[in-house]
Write a structure and sequence with these properties.
Elements lengths: L1 E9 L3 E5 L6 E5 L12 E8 L2 E3 L2 E3 L1 E8 L2 H22 L6 H9 L9 H22 L9 H4 L2 E3 L9 E5 L2 E6 L2 E6 L1 H11 L4 H8 L8
Helix pairs in contact: 1-2, 1-3
Length: 218
């Protein structure tokens, strides 16, 4: 819940606070988020409600999670936190350049929103790991002249597509020549192994497979 509060008095465990425009007061728990606040501070608080009801009435006790100068800043924080959650889910699936990821990297500032620093660091670590795995999947190896004989042999792919394309290959990798250039394509079988063993989702690999019919093989 979100509340606008003015701190009136500091106690041992709670701040006594006024609610602007209301006649009642509330208790605000002093924690690591609020401990440095001074009497007289007025701001917006995103809180967990720990109010206690009794036959004598309700004692409103709030635990502050996010503290900002106004409601707009808290709403902005909550929006960024939502998108950061989406970005973390995308990165966990092996993605690196989704709308959520780009939005978070552009808009989240840990100086402005220090509460998001841990999750933002986690996102960046996942993106680095995804980059490493992609580079590993696409790493280029130098083919020695002695291997040229093997390159001249044709092999069917481990799971030949319906259009029966054959490509020259050295197991476990498929090498494809196009427009006078040679580049590597991980075999269909290996791609499946990677997805099953590591849970990877590598659109680039799938895209290469989809484009096989349009390649001019040499």
């Amino acid at each position: 819940m979100m509340k606008e509060l003015k701190i009136v008095k500091r106690g041992r465990k709670y701040f006594t606070c006024e609610v602007p425009g209301r006649s009642y007061r509330v208790k605000l728990i002093i924690n690591d988020r609020s401990t440095n606040l001074q009497e007289g501070f007025t701001g917006a608080f995103f809180c967990v409600d720990h109010s206690i009801e009794s036959r004598h009435g309700t004692t409103v006790i709030l635990e502050p999670l996010i503290i900002r100068d106004d409601r707009a800043q808290i709403l902005s924080f909550l929006e960024k936190r939502k998108w950061l959650g989406y970005a973390l889910d995308d990165a966990k699936q092996g993605l690196s350049s989704t709308n959520a990821i780009r939005k978070v990297l552009q808009e989240v500032d840990v100086v402005e929103d220090p509460e998001l620093e841990e999750d933002l660091s986690l996102l960046k670590r996942r993106l680095e790991e995804n980059k490493r795995k992609r580079e590993e999947a696409f790493r280029i190896v130098r083919i020695s002249p002695d291997a040229e004989v093997e390159l001249n042999k044709e092999y069917a792919t481990p799971s030949t597509p319906s259009y029966s394309v054959k490509v020259r290959a050295i197991h476990p990798e498929v090498l494809v020549g196009s427009c006078g250039e040679k580049f590597r394509l991980v075999s269909l079988e290996i791609i499946q192994e990677i997805k099953e063993l590591e849970g990877l989702n590598i659109p680039e690999l799938t895209g290469c497979i989809d484009h096989l019919p349009r390649l001019s093989l040499t």
